[in-house]
Amino acid sequence: MKVLIYSRVFAPNIGGVETVVMSLASGLARMNKADTGVTTDLTVVTMTPRHGFDDAGLPFPVVRQPKLRQLVRLIRATDVLHLAGPSLLPLLSALLLRKPVAVEHHGFQAICPNGQLLYEPTHEPCPGHFMANEHMRCLRCNIKKGMAGSLRSWLLTFPRRFLCARVDANVMPTVWLQGQLKLPGSTTVHHGLSAHIGNSVSASQPSTSKFAFIGRLVSTKGVYTLVQAAQQLRVAGFQFQLKVIGNGPDRDALWQQIVHSGLEDSVHLLGYVPPGRLDEQLAEVATIIIPSLAGEVFGMVAAEGMSRGKLLIASDIGSMREVIGEAGLFFPAGNAAELAKCMKRVLNEPNLFARHGNIGRTRASHQFDETTMVSRHLDIYREALACDD
Q: What is the pTM of this model?
């Protein structure tokens, strides 16, 4: 069976989509006929430049930045097309060629023009203006792109949703997302975690006074809310350390907020940390904070934190509730005062870390197994092929 995975973003870029696609592709390439009863011939197509990345070291071929004619040839030659997100050009091409298609949704592009389900004017979670036919709100939401850019994003949402309703399978990482998108042929497959995450041995003992944030430095990730909460802790007289791991366009503005709040000695911007060094940076950290305002359909940082046995503090949004379960503390998205209360609980109640950390590690190993994720995708491809015959 020939499988073509199309992902606009891929290594060497860093992000949730890139991580999931690499995990799925590597898992499919490792499986052989003895394991599954079928031989999988896998290719990944991406628009991400190589930038020195060693594609030859991967267990599958990668085609980067193909021209339209080459992309159509690749789709024509495959048995099943897997789309990491509803990219219109390959989606339309595959349907015209009558190829089985599985779309894995990593965002809200099928129901939201900006793909984040965030109402930009107020920086609050969007209640679903597009699906409620409140389209003027959608146009106002994305006005930072200019009227032409906002109009383009809004218009493209219609064909994107129309085409997703006609594919063989819409794959969702959470049941919550499935309920939001309301697309036919939907099935939920949780993302899987690599077996090596959380297995490194460290001589350091986690400290309940040390927190970490991991993610892109953009406003939707809630980093400004986190710094506000940290300032409230400082005013209340608490001693703590916060590591901010990741890069992004808001780095300079975030640093200015940290300086203005007098938190230079407590909040540390570490920038990008390679996966091989992440466990080292997190060794002394007891709690990972995920203050996202919107845009989360799964929460890979949450799942990986659970696998590492960390206590989690997360925004109370649907996907986070589903992934974290009883392994963490929750606060209303964007509410710095409530986030500060959760951080105070961790500082005042050291037993929270051990209790929630053990729950999280067990939950991650049971719910987010990489082999199970790969097998479920293979079943979806086979079902799509069978329906197409």
A: 0.92
